[in-house]
Prior knowledge:
This protein has 20 helices and 10 strands.
Amino acid sequence: MNSPKYRRLAVLTTILLLHVPVYQSRFIPGFEYLVYRTEYCPRSEEEYKGRSSALGCTVNSSYACMPNEELTELWEFCYPLQILYITPDTCLFLSRRIWHLDSHNCKNFKYGCPALHYRASEIYKYPSCVSIANGCFSAEPDCKRKNSGKESDEQNKVSSEKQEDVLANSKLTDYLMSILLILGVIILILCLRPIFNILTRIIKIPKRCRFVKDIGVLLRSIRHVLARRLFMKKAFKFKNTSAEEELLMTEGLDNACRDGDYNTVYSLLLKGVNTNLKIGDYKNTPLILACQNGHKCIVQILLDFDADPNICNFDKASPLLVATENGNTDIVELLLNYNGNVNACNFSGVSPLFVAAKKGNYSLVETLLNKGARVDIEKYNPIKKAIAGNHDKIVECLLQHCSREGVDIHKKCGLLYFAYCKRNMDIVKLLLRHGAPPLTKEEKRMLLDRLRHTTQSVKRK
């Protein structure tokens, strides 16, 4: 029992146990880092530094405080990044559903919504992002506070005193519990020799074999979160990046953008991964994948790291066209602000405006028109598509835009004849009010033939 083999094993187990999470009444299980409940978030830089020191955040992590997904509690933790970068008009929360950070658009806040980029270490400047009540942000218009101002002040004072007591005792509790755990394991090591034999065999597995096994798991399950984290640990140790390693890192970025894994995306971008490289059968870029899955925060950070908003995939679909297809107005506005081509069409000639008109999305149609979207496209005309979908409001919006811009849309596209064919008399009247010329003799003849053919088909049935 006193052989060097067992002594080394005992020392190794003791070192590992120093990192075992200690249970406290404030501890929240399930995350890869320690997360605790708190009554309030730091209200000044001095409080931020004190709380960061109390939780033991190191140089490789940063203290963060934010609500949970249900907006019922505030949670604090040491996030495994030196700098946690947050985009404008965004408040972060920690989600149990996806086990990492997620974002909430705060544009509708009555006050306090961050207008600029900021760091998690500056959260005390934006108290609206950590002020919650009744399952909502207090700054939201439809969120009602339970307590008056005086009651809130008194509760804050009591909460502050409780929080300081808990933080003061947390380190002492951690050390005491760690010592008890270490003593228990040492007793097991001294009494249960069969366990030593099993652990010894595991330790003797060659490192090379374990690395090959790990990479095999990664290649079979590149989209799996745990496999991706393993890959990150391996990839960041490379000193000279070969073409194959660069491709693997790009695949990691693509899958993180698809899954909304902000932490992995940010880490890979800091590593210098190419944001514009196309991979896969459809040649999608990371930006297209983020737009496809509606991850606004990831779209923002990709654009900040010089992702090109006009690089298309195999079908010549641009990120803007993909975002329009998904009906995500916030992402469309973001891409347009970064000079996304509003008139970029795919191989078939479909434009973002055509897609917005097809889906009946009035706000998207207005946004695209304000950025110079063309209406006078003959093959895939947005007005015709709006007529086919009986979207009267969008038809009127597009016609008014043509009048303001001096675009003669009627001669090119035959809108009146098309509306008659669709038997939508409300849109026929709307077109006539906006200067549509009467039907030509040829159009009348074709319309009568169409009507006659339809009548005969009905009689046969």
